Amino acid sequence: MITMKEYYSDVKDIDENVLVMKSDSLWKKGTVLDIKNLVTPQLFHLHILVNLIGNWKCDGWWFIMSEMVELVPYIAEALSQAGAEDIKTAYEKVVECFPSDTKFEYSEEYFDVVNFLQSLGYKAKSERLGAITREERKARMKQVQRCVDELDEITSHYWGEDAINNGWKQAIDYIELNR
What we know:
Helices cover 69% and strands 0% of the residues. The chain is mostly helical. Helix 4 crosses helix 9, helix 5 packs antiparallel against helix 6 (85-97) and helix 6 (85-97) runs antiparallel to helix 9 (134-159). 25% of the residues are buried.
């Protein structure tokens, strides 16, 4: 397994460019599961964290939840390992907004749930979702938006442009603690 120490041994000064380059290099090795099986847990958590920070900076948490679903099963642990407990707690509140039987994986069913939660104009394909009343759906949509907004607000303190190291401090600190 590739360790954090090995992977970053050639790097003296770590910044956003190094983090992105190293993460992109890992993506060339395959899927999230492939990478998880190739690297130590510490390097895997860093890879998830770097992808979270980068994608949050561009598109926010709802994008991550709806378009980067392959990361969802690993997000809470990566945040916990990085010491981001308040972000983790807010993230878990977003996950709780999804129906309890949601499978966080690339599938027609998952995207049906995502679309159902973001637009009243979307007609759900699932009978289960279609059975939810308009009022209950509106309430659920408001809850999702409120939780995502709270998560984005908390996250901005750590990963925003005004944060230390332009928002990459948690990733850089995690490397220093684990190499």
